[in-house]
Write a structure and sequence with these properties.
The structure is a single chain. With 415 residues, the protein is an alpha/beta fold. It has 17 helices and 13 strands. Helix content is 42%, strand content 15%. The strands form three sheets. It has a seven-stranded parallel sheet with strand order 3-2-1-4-5-6-7, sandwiched between helices. The radius of gyration is 21 Å and the shape is globular.
Amino acid sequence: MSKRLLFVTSRLPWPKNSGRKVSLYHYCRGLCEQYGYEIALFVFPEWDQPRDAADKPAFISEVRFSTPISRARKAVNLASSALSGKPLQAALYQSPENRRLLEKHVADFKPDVILFDMIRLAPYMHDFKGKVRCILDLDDLLSVRYARQLSALDKGTSIAGHYAGGMSPTAERLFCRGRIGRMILKSEQKRLARWEVRYAKDADGVILVSEAEATALNQRLGAPRAVAVPMGVDMAAFAPCDTKKRARTFGFVGNLHVAANVSSLQYITEHILPSLAAPFCFEVAGPVPDEVRARLEGITGLSFLGEVKDLAPVMHTWQFSLCPIPFGSGIKTKILEAMAAELPVITNTVGSEGINAPHGKSIFVHDDPTALANTANELLDNPERCREIGKNAAAFVGESFAWEHTFHAFQNLDL
């Protein structure tokens, strides 16, 4: 009889067009193919995802979906969370109907293990504690990310991120921007700092992508409960092809509905591009809200590609990736994928966090905008140097972050 694992997720893991979806997809694949689990999903789809299992990969046996949560229910939950001090984002996913649906799925599927995706779904662990082994996949420490975001947040940037698409424009404008948005983010950061520890203590194990963050959480817990299961890369998908490089062309990958990506692009356009020697072409691959396009389109050398179905062929035309990240946490998928595509990556300390690639050999890490611009100018004029660093980068990622290596880390959870 096969082992069974139920993954309660906050999005469908396909198509793999975001870092989190990539992780969820390959976690399921690895747990099935290398650990022998039959995998089922209980999914709370994102606002723009269908509630159907079309294109389900073969390594997932069954998918069931949550029922949509009404705005009235969310409002009640938010009011309750505001009084209780629990994370506000968790309130957006709670409903009695979905508790019953999840309980039925557990009763029907009879899992040996339940994985809960991120802190937003952690409250559902309560119903199964002591009955089924419960693992909390935090991904990264949002309390750390939000603390950094507060120090770098532009007053016009929304704190809602991708979730903004599921909100009314009025609510998003009133509560997710400016002074009110900053107040809510500051409150949520404090709530998360408390509840990351509380939920981690309730779980039978905790997953983070960064070894440094797993160590930090274990210090707060006073016990080795959290383990690092690093972000991985599908090396074959990004392996170089015959696509030719375009002279003086480089790029950035990011969904510009996400505040961190908007801040990265704003930083690049304000502090780095003006110091680069023309001509050059700076391409941005990823969805672009109209307001971002209107604000930045027309900047010399900047070109928006929009959402790209297959990133690898586009990245293979670039000389390097320019990716300083003002705030964030965990390991950045876009940086690992660029390195796998044999691109030199120019980033900062936050961007390189958790990767530990050698500066100047496999990656360039600078926190000063002048140093970032100087490195970009050097690479624009030196295609041979780009090829050298790019090959080093791919070799490093292949040795440290190929998914087959990453899957070994699940052993630390006795899976």
